[in-house]
Amino acid sequence: MSDNPYSATVLAWYESHARDLPWRTPDASPWSVLVSEIMLQQTPVVRVLPAWHSWMERWPTPADLAKEPSGEAVRMWNRLGYPRRALRLHACAVALTERYGGEVPDDHETLLSLPGVGAYTAAAVASFAFGQRHAILDTNVRRVLARAETGIQYPPKTQTKAETTLAESLLPTEPSVAARWGVAVMELGALVCTARAPACADCPIAHQCAWKLAGKPAHDGPPRRGQRYAGTDRQVRGRLLAVLRESAEPVPKEALDAVWDEGVQRERALDALVADGLVDPLDDGRYALPG
């Protein structure tokens, strides 16, 4: 163990309060962990669970997904949001199948080289799928550490080197314990040390929390604004993709025009979907999912 003053308490709390999630079971495959981590980016667990089950039932291995067109991944993504993640998962499955025999590699640097896998995802998969020792910094972990150690309500908008250094300094020495610590502090942030209504009375480390001990000073940085969805290009993109997902055949332009009255915004959203590789414009004027 490191000199982490919270680990024993947080790990004991996790043993009693962890959610029963399928990608956390002892027999969860590395691929299932990777899929969960990509899906969970900017998406709550309650929405990810049914999508993850459907995905893993259809594509239990990278090779199963790689042999399908990328458009099927976009179709299966349904309404999870940020659908480019579906394309990245498909590209990742192709890379795993072509380069690594259809297996998710256990090497952190190799994970980082995969399409759509950034620093957080590589660390999470190496830790949760392979029991390795890596600092894991998602939104929940950053918030817990900002409050407990730094004494501020919210971490900086952009992750800093100081945050990484702090997270690494708190890693227990034993890799398996470090991996458990990573998921435990993440769970603490998701269930107790939440962004808007932290349940300090239920927090196992409240008596050690610098932010609570300082009287919970209010955030004094730039205003934190929730992401608006209604009326945005994201909403238009979602409606356009829904038409394509629900059709087994390419659709005429008129079917897409019908989903949004404001023509300039609709065309801008459609152009962005084409540019992102999520929609294929066909030579006959119809539109389809890629592949």
Description:
The chain is an all-alpha fold. The protein has 15 helices and 2 strands. The protein has a two-stranded antiparallel ribbon with strand order 1-2. Strand 1 and strand 2 form a beta hairpin. Helix 9 crosses helix 11 and helix 13 packs across helix 15.
Task: Report a brief summary of the structure.
This protein is an all-alpha fold. It contains 15 helices and 2 strands.
Name the helix and strand elements from N-terminus to C-terminus, one letter apiece: HHHHHHHHHHHHHHHEE
Spatial order of the strands forming the largest sheet: 1-2
The Rg value, from CA coordinates, equals: 21 Å
- Going by helix content, strand content and strand pairing, the class is mainly alpha
The geometry reads as globular
Uncertain segments: none
Mean pLDDT: 95
Indicate the percent of residues in helices: 40-55%
DSSP strand count? 2
The N- and C-terminal alpha carbons lie at a distance of 49 Å
Question: What percent of residues are in strands?
Answer: under 5%
State the major sheet.
Answer: 2 strands, antiparallel
Number of helices: 15
List the helices and strands and how they pair.
Elements: H1 7-17, H2 30-39, H3 45-58, H4 62-66, H5 70-77, H6 84-99, H7 108-112, H8 119-130, H9 139-150, H10 161-169, H11 175-191, H12 210-213, H13 233-245, H14 253-257, H15 263-275, E1 280-281, E2 287-288
Antiparallel strand pairs: 1-2
Quick tags:
291 residues; mainly alpha; two-stranded antiparallel ribbon; globular
